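Any chance you could type out a protein's amino acid sequence plus the matching backbone structure tokens because I've never seen that pairing?

——
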Amino acid sequence: LTLARVKPAAHVTLAERIAIARRPDVLATLAVTVITLAGAYTVYSYLAPFLQQTAHLGGDAIALVLFMFGLGSTAGNFLSGATADRIGPRRVIAGVLVGLVGIFTALSFVGTTLPADSARWIVVPLIALWGFVGFSFPAAQQAYIVTLAPRLAPITLSLNASAIYLGASLGAFLGSLVVARGAVAELGWVAAACEVTALVVLQ
């Protein structure tokens, strides 16, 4: 009884819903979401075998690495929104993609060139950093996609959510192809290529 009356949102016609899904700028933004998530899930889906092969980590050690990834993710998600408000979401997204290219490249470079006992001291911090950088993407991307059509934000955000799931599925598939070749340590190369592609589409 004490809550303020909420003004209903403007009615959006079916034609408007279809039209927004066909706009080139919206499609390009959704493509960035798909490709970015594909790169991340290429590695994340097979993070345990990656850590086992490149750093000889298993069991509780992998759980600790995931905990560090989670801490980085929380910080990245928290700071991303404020940063996007200050410098603009598109600049945040570009910075995230450049960062992910570097991180994924470094993961595979270290994993394929250094012995596991040495690699672990680099791989583990890189994964924590990946959590921070990677989870700076969702908030910035959502903020950007809202600016494309503010009145239709519920529609574009729902499309973006679908793009996230599509990207995760695509990444798991790409990773499976790499793992099937017995080249677990090379997952980062594929992930980095995805992020480069996303950066090209963003431009």
In short: The two ends are 50 Å apart (CA to CA). Residues 60-87 form the longest helix (28 residues). The chain has a mean pLDDT of 90.
